[in-house]
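quick one, two chains, predict together pls
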Amino acid sequence: MLFFRSEELIDDWCRTRDLPRRPSVRMDQLWQLAVTWYGTRLTAESRRPGPQEMRGIFEGLGLLGDFWDPQSDAFAPGKP
Amino acid sequence: MTSDTDVKLAIYQATAASGRVPTADAVAASVGATREDVIASFGRLAAQRLLALDRGGEAIRMAPPFSAVPTPHRVRVDGTEYFANCAWDALGIPAALHRPAEVLSRCEQSGAPLELSVDSSGPAPSTWLFHCQVPAAGWWKDIVFT
């Protein structure tokens, strides 16, 4: 989970490592993820979101598709 | 008897106060429990994905968003410097502490430094991007790699 200065630099990073390009996330979206995940982390009630909550969080930010599905097997070994 | 919640709060309060994730001995002293009980609690908290452990489960590697080891992702809050586990967690630290922060990191491809101010409304306007190589379903299969 890394920062990049531009889409082109993400492309370069993936290409030079022969890794698949994944969806990028804007900083305002990342802030919303950070607040949702960690805003209550220092409280007694804090817990990590479950799979259904994660789907809702990602969908609410426009982060759609199998990549963001915590229970997807689309990227499991052996899948095309 | 000390609860897992007591242990969790002791970990996070100590980390928030000092910037350093505490040892099992320090947590035990804080909550008035034995080291063995605290390590057992570490294991249960890790099973809930609230901690990632090291040294056979006896040390904390990650108390997300905080890292127990130095990383390229640093966050300054009120004069204290914290290490974040990743780019997401770099914004997670000001979100967890509810304090203005300076996030110091880098572009992983170009090496260009990132210096990002964050306040209660979020980061200053920025065209920088976040990219995660591991799909969400695999994040905790190897959380250190993720």
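Residues 27-38 of chain A form the longest helix (12 residues).
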